[in-house]
Amino acid sequence: MPRPxxxxxxxxxxxxxxxxxxxxxxxxxxxxxxxAELIADAATAELRLLEAAAEAHLVVGAYLADAAAxxxxxxxxxxxxxxxxxxxxxxxxxxxxxPQEKA
Amino acid sequence: MYHYNDFDxxxxxxxxxxxxxxVERRISGALTEEEFKPLRLMNGLYLQLHAYMLRVAIPYGTxxxxxxxxxxxxxxxxxxxxxxxxxxxxxxxxxxxxRDVPDILEALADVEMHAxxxxxxxxxxxxxxxFAGAAADEIxxxxxxxxxxxxxxxxHPQFQFLPRKFKIAVSGSRNxxxxxxxxxxxxxxxxxxxxxxxxVIVGGGLGRTPMIGKVLREFxxxxxLLAYVEAVVSTWNLLGRRDNKFKSRIKIxxxxxxxEDISRLVEAEFAQTRPGFAGADRAMLARIEAxxxxxxFVAKSPAPHAAARASDPVxxxxxxxxxxxxxxxxxxxxxxxxxxxGATPGDASADQMRLLxxxxxxxxxxxxxxxxxxxxxxxxxxxxxxxxxxxxLTQAGLATxxxxxxxxxxxxxxxxxxxxxxxxxxxxxxxxxxxxEELKVEHDVGPLKIKIxxxxxxxxHHHVGHIGILGLxxxxxxxxxxxxxxxHTETAAIGERAGPGFSxxxxxxxxxxxxxxxxxxxxxxDETFLQAYRRLGPAPFKALLYPEARSDAA
Lengths: 103, 554
Hints:
The complex is a heterodimer of chains A (103) and B (554).
Chain A: E1 8-14, E2 20-23, E3 29-30, H1 42-53, E4 59-70, E5 73-76, H2 79-86
Chain B: H1 6-28, H2 33-42, E1 45-47, E2 52-57, E3 62-63, H3 65-78, E4 82-85, E5 90-93, H4 101-109, E6 127-128, H5 143-153, E7 168-171, E8 185-192, E9 195-202, E10 214-221, H6 225-239, H7 250-257, H8 259-273, H9 280-291, H10 303-311, H11 313-322, E11 323-325, E12 331-336, E13 347-349, H12 350-363, E14 368-370, E15 376-382, H13 386-395, E16 410-411, H14 426-439, H15 442-445, E17 450-453, E18 467-474, E19 477-484, E20 496-497, E21 502-503, H16 504-521, H17 529-536, H18 539-545, H19 547-553
Parallel strand pairs in B: 6-7, 7-8, 16-17, 17-18
Antiparallel strand pairs in B: 1-2, 2-5, 3-14, 4-5, 4-13, 8-9, 9-10, 11-12, 12-15, 14-15, 18-19, 19-20, 19-21
Helix pairs in contact in B: 1-2, 1-4, 3-12, 5-9, 6-8, 7-8, 10-11, 14-16, 16-18, 18-19
């Protein structure tokens, strides 16, 4: 039996900057996971990933990551994806140092 | 130090201009990511969790002040003001933007550096003993051979699509500081009847299937080096498995075929390659050796060092821990710790790099080394100048007296940066170092190697740590496995797994129990952790790690 589908977001890294981004419902790429489209079924997930793959001029290495609905939007369910929303733990670099981008 | 000739310079600059055009074509859309990825990897450019990462080779770990200042400049101009020195004598910049990378490579070319073959299935940066040319126990400087191998392997047409990456390390001393037994090929310079040659060790490696290398030739005459190494790599290039990347490294080939079979095949291939090397390589090696002639050491009275050591306990602790015997008795080798308690192992800020460059220029015959243990070496320092160096290092936060001790931890970048990682390494290293600084016991504990990897690929050398820590993902939670009894030297050994892993919260107290418990187990201050482990076996050390298991059994 196939495993039950868990909600997903489409994520990748930006081609020029290399930072982590998430795909929104309007098809843009946001540096804020909370802005992402939370996908509830496998067929839509597959379609969105194909759409992302067509945007190789903007992003690299798009994939589906597990996420859960939170108060302000999708939230990570695995620590790797949580780190991607913040940056490294040894310096205040990366997204945790760039709150202005979350607007 | 070796300096690029016109050919080297033209070659490196040509690669930079090729890469500049490749980046432009990727951005314009003329190249897909599938087409671009192997091209960027050939130039050391990875895409990691938060950003691109550029891995720059520091061949055999040797730098001068000009190169170090340029690394500082790159860190400030195009990165976030620091660089990370790795276990393979590379430096990694963690935050470059794609458009800037060709300019960074150009800036590297200006100081005879590059990022070629720091990735991909090629012969990687050739590493060497970080005390090369300075150590009192050295038979010969390993760097000329390492430079010869660098030139031979760079863009070698036969070896650009190997079954997997291939790593070579060279040691010039019986005391192996280059981890030669954990490399695809380890070369140890040996002397027989007054002639220099090489002990050739093959099939070592860490990662998923750790193996200690086996001796393929006890004594390879110096003139046969390139022909023989070419025969080894050619043999593996044909035989190595391309169907399964977990079985592709030469350690698996040697394991599956046996060292006798491999030896027979290599010797047959060697008979073919040998006539192709008609002496040009020998002439080249002679020229390279001349470039590595030792500096003209200036004789100075070591009295200032002796006086400082007698009067200043902080200086004394540093001198007793961070200095190594030099071939000149009135000189010393200084290891500058990049492991300040709580800092990221191997990171240096641009300011620190510039200070190290200044010290090298002023006091150390303009030489610097990077060790696989992620520290910086001033290889030749007159003992008279040590107090001045210590004072300058103290100002820059670089005078930590912990080389070879508990807090001198190797750690890979782990999941703070690396896309392959399964758990973080850096915070574990930071917390262990901070905890032992609070306990004020590390000088009492003595020599101890803790090595941490954030995944099974073992960039943090955990298998050969006296205490190894491997970070894994267990059901969506970071989990840390401990191995005991590893050894990276000439008595190399793979550590044994101690038992179930620990959570991120449990691992620091577990290491504390282990290290403090060793103090009760040892026969005296002279018995190191590794010696005690070898004498007693794993049982009492496991009991320290898992006290509840012991009480359950009681």
